[in-house]
Amino acid sequence: MIADTLEELVFTGDFSDGDRLDEIRLARQFNVSRTPIREALQRLVASGLAVQIPRRGVFIRQPGLVELMEMFETMAEIEGVCGRLAAHRISEEALADLDTANARCTEAIAADDADGYYRENERFHHMIYRHAGNGFLEQEALRLHRRLKPFRRMQLRLRGRMAQSMAEHEAVVAALRAGEAERAAEVLRGHVAIQGEKFHLLMASLRRAAE
Amino acid sequence: MIADTLEELVFTGDFSDGDRLDEIRLARQFNVSRTPIREALQRLVASGLAVQIPRRGVFIRQPGLVELMEMFETMAEIEGVCGRLAAHRISEEALADLDTANARCTEAIAADDADGYYRENERFHHMIYRHAGNGFLEQEALRLHRRLKPFRRMQLRLRGRMAQSMAEHEAVVAALRAGEAERAAEVLRGHVAIQGEKFHLLMASLRRAAE
DNA sequence: TGGGAAAATCTTGTATACAAAAATCTTGAC
DNA sequence: GTCAAGATTTTTGTATACAAGATTTTCCCA
Asked: Which residues form the HTH gntR-type domain (chains A, B) (predicted)?
């Protein structure tokens, strides 16, 4: 529970890169002893959100731009794999569910409801992972998806990105429905890879604005 | 350090599925207090080798056959991805290194040196991960590779498997050298997928022998 | 004799105390 | 005034004590 709260704090940017997570201070903050804090910190380290330097403490570690791009590329490849497998394994009902999610996405765009859009978008991707028909792969995909969540949301703010994303979703469903595995893989891979590129773009423009 | 030892014990089969890892007993065994044992157990849980049930303890959790097959399939897909990326990104020197590793593998087969074969085989795969040119993907590949290690070794015992595996390795290098990304991906995927199938075969025959 | 409730025991989870290592501060010499 | 060595403080890592929940045992009654 404490680990989740700390994770939230890292994601929401309350901690910045290189900050030391002081056990005693956190213990006071959460009104517990150091022991549960240490367990929470170990979880953060295990999930890659922090690094532990022996006898020095644990430091939060925000991924740099290059690492983020690597993570987006990996996510794109994994989604591609899920798409290729799903093309062979997905059921008719599941395809209908994907259509439903997409319809709700379109509604959300019309209503200018970014949160709603994001929620249904997430459902869409989770369904693809699920219907790859490989529970282990699904878990790995979910893990990485979750890790990239705060960064993925940012690029959705770009003008016209939501509509573009929707079109890509529909191409994915079309390929899956046709059972065209390689096309499904390629479309999904591109759909995620472009998120990484858009994110990169966003960061570059932000950096330029800061100067 | 204790976590590594425990991991070893799990891999070498000193613990079987569902065993409870008694903190007090382990503490006595390692001559330390419960605190470091608890930290080690948390690591095992984080790496998926054990599950923790609150107020009940942590239990070791060997993956069942279906999960293992899922893991092999995932590994095959990830290696395929590494191969596809590496086909575009690998250097001439690295290709030469792959050849060297393969040559050593052949020698090891001639000398009937299973350990040596396995060591060079591992180097081969690690190099492919490395030259996919994506540090994050590399780490993920290494993680899964490591997790599957004890099971991968088993299938190498099958008669003729080492020679077959070697031929596949050479096909991989040929595709990489030609820069044929899709072929490299397919060959590598097949190379790992067949390991899963062989492993399945082995388990089935072992089960039949037990009856 | 079987079933169930209560007590005893065991085990996890948390707090705290202590040891060792790292970081910081102080003091002295040049 | 600056640098370095030693002392002090801070901080992590480990041991131990205690609390709360889970399990087992025991005992009573039908």
From this structure: 1-63
